[in-house]
Write a structure and sequence with these properties.
six-stranded parallel beta sheet; alpha/beta; 2 domains; Rossmann fold; 15 helices; 13 strands
Length: about 375
């Protein structure tokens, strides 16, 4: 007999596969029956073949009244049929629609994990206030337990009384630092194969980026800064790991990518599952985003003993200690980014020292098992 029935809600199946999988697997192992509700962006069939219980729900990743009402209707039908003990929601739009459906369905325990509040410093005052109030009111009236990955989000939620402090938890973020993201466990033959595949030679200094190829990830500034460095240093490479959804591809990004591909030192890897190995062949990781929650990609790089250059924004500045594990740069500042890239390129010992300190911090603060244990303790305290 299961401890209880949990519904995990996310906008798309990729988020389930890449981010929520450890929690779902740990919950099942702990004795819970776990269902998943998400839109299919290519992973639902494979998740189902592994034995996960997945319900396809229509989700738009934007506010659209007709579409959003359809999502709520589908979720209510699902919740009424299975009578879940806990509904746990993730991602901005899906978390709102999921909580509306859960309240209308009489679900007693609604948990929201904010992977990063949607409002951020780069917004206009009017826009910031609008999204701030949405987050606050939904936390107050449609959420029983509020979990925050970012410490800044947690402190703001407590200070501004989004809920009673006893119902707010700083969750942090975590990865598998023992087996998967562990430099000591990397197969060196795989590293040699990847270098040959990507055309990386022994003298090359490699910068890497992991993420969606969209402007808000700072990829335009990154390429511009790299090209500036590349003008006087031919033995530098830039790995662009990832891609973008077809719905995000427009003429601007298509033209930009065509131009970037003309530089043989910029390497497009596509979406990859061998991130630990790709980080191993890198010397420095860069994430120049305009906004983030608490990015896993930085933690992954730090776990692999890599210095990180990231923007001085919420989430990134929580993970990167300036001048100790890497550098923080100002958002959209190409010259600042270039100077920090040049500094690390010219200082091998600094890179090594930053990387060692980064690994030490990850071991103390971003161990996935500790993050999972916090959530399982919460589930158990609610239902047992």
């Amino acid at each position: 007999m299961s401890k209880g029935r949990i519904l995990q809600i996310s906008a798309v199946s990729t988020t389930v596969d890449k981010q929520l999988r450890p929690l779902i697997e740990a919950s099942i192992e702990d004795g819970y029956e776990v269902h998943i509700a998400c839109a299919d962006d290519g992973n639902v069939e494979s998740l189902g073949s592994e034995g996960f219980i997945v319900h396809k729900i229509h989700f738009d990743r934007k506010i659209s009244l007709k579409s959003n009402l359809r999502s709520i209707k589908e979720l209510r039908k699902l919740m009424k049929f299975y009578n879940y003990d806990i509904v746990h929601v993730h991602t901005p739009v899906a978390s709102i629609l999921g909580r509306v459906a859960a309240k209308l369905s009489g679900i007693k325990n609604i948990i929201y994990t904010a992977h990063g509040y949607y409002f951020h410093d780069g917004m206009s005052k009017r826009e910031y206030t609008f999204y701030y109030q949405i987050e606050k009111q939904f936390a107050k009236f449609a959420t029983d337990y509020l979990l925050l990955q970012s410490k800044e989000d947690y402190e703001l939620s407590v200070e501004k009384r989004f809920k009673n402090k006893s119902k707010i938890m700083h969750l942090s973020n975590g990865i598998d630092i023992h087996e998967k993201f562990n430099p000591e466990k990397i197969n060196q033959e795989n590293i040699k194969t990847i270098k040959d595949e990507l055309g990386i030679k022994e003298p090359d200094f490699v910068f890497s980026f992991v993420g969606r190829f969209v402007r808000e990830k700072g990829i335009y500034e990154l390429v511009e800064a790299f090209n500036k460095l590349n003008e006087t240093n031919q033995n530098v490479k830039l790995l662009l790991i990832g891609g973008l959804l077809e719905s995000e591809r427009d003429q601007e990004i298509s033209q930009a990518m065509n131009k970037w591909e003309a530089n043989e030192n910029i390497i497009f890897t596509g979406v990859r599952s061998d991130i630990p190995e790709l980080q191993s062949v890198s010397d420095v990781f860069i994430l120049p985003s305009y906004r983030e929650g608490l990015p896993r990609s930085i933690i992954e790089a730090m776990a692999m003993k890599k210095p990180v250059i990231a923007t001085n924004i919420r989430g990134c500045r929580e993970e990167v200690i300036d001048s100790e594990t890497g550098f923080l740069v100002e958002k959209q500042n190409v010259n600042d980014l270039y100077q920090k890239m040049l500094t690390l390129f010219e200082n091998e010992e600094m890179c090594k020292a930053f990387g060692e300190e980064a690994r030490r911090i990850v071991e103390n603060e971003y161990d996935e098992q500790k993050v999972l244990d916090k959530q399982l303790r919460l589930f158990n305290s609610i239902l047992l």
